[in-house]
Structure to design on (347 residues):
């Protein structure tokens, strides 16, 4: 949060658009055999042979999706890739390439964009994807990052939102609500910092939830795990807007209802303790928090023995006939309708 006055600051005008693109991308390596041509021509060229290709785009806008007063640019670059890869994995596909487009104002020096691209490059390296192009333009105010991710799958492996059937199990990966609570802590510290900039926050008790907010990981490992377990979900979606919102999407596209059990919701101890500290109900956070980038899926009952006891997968409910509606069964065994209170950029 503290600006380093000694840090070098090279104005972007010194490089010009082409110099900037070249500077940021010149050392990118191509690793995927499907990338015929990456950065450097009018278009990239890809070859996926007889596999199906999935394409997805997400945009991150300063002051809408991120706040640079606490989000380090390196983490932001990493996260911009993650939110896109998460959508590829939610199709049960393998991510292979991304394009990265940025609109940037001249308040950013070259060094800031180097940080952003260091995060992008780290993500590409860890997740084994090629950066094959993008666009660079100016913005009069904030920073905008738009990423398009490309992936492949055999047609028979693709999982849509529309395949859930009554009696299927509702399964979620990882734990819920941590990214949202991490954001609450960061927002609180930002306010404290405004009042007293000398106050260095002690964030040791919140490391997990802050990391989940600033540097999420897309669940590439789950696509592999499902393959290894020989489980093909009947439907799947990634959790970006909050569990309840995603449940409603699966129900709508699959024309089914769902019952969700409050006592099955996976929560990290740091989420529980931070919810207590902020006096917020942890179930509300698990349902509506958003930005978890976990995968929510339905699987056939027959596959239950294959996933039983797996620490990455938690059964949180089951699928019903559409006419039964969507309900949360509380710890007190009351049934309340699930409504979407997820994050909405038009709120
Ligand atoms: P054009 O004028 O044909 O759109 P550009 O000069 O914008 O080409 O881009 C030149 C090359 O650099 C293209 O391969 C493009 O995909 C790539 N590129 C441009 N901006 C970025 C960026 N921010 N990140 C990665 N690649 C980029
Ligand atoms: Mg261009």
């Amino acid at each position: 949060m503290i600006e380093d006055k000694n840090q070098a600051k090279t104005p972007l005008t010194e490089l010009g658009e082409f110099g900037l693109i070249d500077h940021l991308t010149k050392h990118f390596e191509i690793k995927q055999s499907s990338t015929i041509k990456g950065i450097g021509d009018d278009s990239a060229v890809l070859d996926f042979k007889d596999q199906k290709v999935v394409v997805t785009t997400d945009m991150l806008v300063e002051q809408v999706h991120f706040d640079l007063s606490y989000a380090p640019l390196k983490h932001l670059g990493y996260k911009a890739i993650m939110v896109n890869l998460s959508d590829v994995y939610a199709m049960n596909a393998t991510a292979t390439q991304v394009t990265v487009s940025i609109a940037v104002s001249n308040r950013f020096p070259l060094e800031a964009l180097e940080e952003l691209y260091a995060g992008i490059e780290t993500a590409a390296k860890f997740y084994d994807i090629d950066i094959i192009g993008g666009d660079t333009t100016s913005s009069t105010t904030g920073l905008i990052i738009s990423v398009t991710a490309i992936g492949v799958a055999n047609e028979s492996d693709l999982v849509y939102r529309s395949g859930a059937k009554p009696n299927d199990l509702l399964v979620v990966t990882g734990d819920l609500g941590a990214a949202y609570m991490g954001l609450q802590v960061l927002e609180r510290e930002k306010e404290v910092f405004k009042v007293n900039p000398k106050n260095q926050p002690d964030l040791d008790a919140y490391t997990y939830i802050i990391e989940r907010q600033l540097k999420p990981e897309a669940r590439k490992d789950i696509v592999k795990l499902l393959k290894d377990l020989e489980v093909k979900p009947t439907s799947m979606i990634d959790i970006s807007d909050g569990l309840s919102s995603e449940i409603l999407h699966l129900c709508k596209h699959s024309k089914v209802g769902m019952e969700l059990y409050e006592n099955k919701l996976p929560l990290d101890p740091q989420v529980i303790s931070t919810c207590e500290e902020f006096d917020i109900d942890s179930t509300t956070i698990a349902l509506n928090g958003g930005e978890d980038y976990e995968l929510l899926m339905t699987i056939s009952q027959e596959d239950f023995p294959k996933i039983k006891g797996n620490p990455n997968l938690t059964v949180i409910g089951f699928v019903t006939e559409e006419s039964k509606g969507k309900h949360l069964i509380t710890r007190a065994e009351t049934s309340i309708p699930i409504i979407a209170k997820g994050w909405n950029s038009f709120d």
